[in-house]
Amino acid sequence: MIVPAITTQAVVAIAAVQLSHSLRLPMTGIILFAAARIHQARFYTVDTDFKGLNDVEAIAKQG
Fold first, then answer.
1. 30, 32, 38, 54 - which has most CB atoms within 10 Å?
2. How many helices (H) and strands (E) are present in the chain, helices listed first?
């Protein structure tokens, strides 16, 4: 049996759903957060929902 390769988009989507559920955060923005986590990158955002999470840099809105 040949198993199709899982695309990067599918991996990010699955991770986003899991993070959204476990962190109780909306899917808006969580997809970018999941992609950052998969690639071991720091996540920069102005969204205060992510404040306090590991590898998240909350940036104050200006204006």
1. 30
2. 2, 2
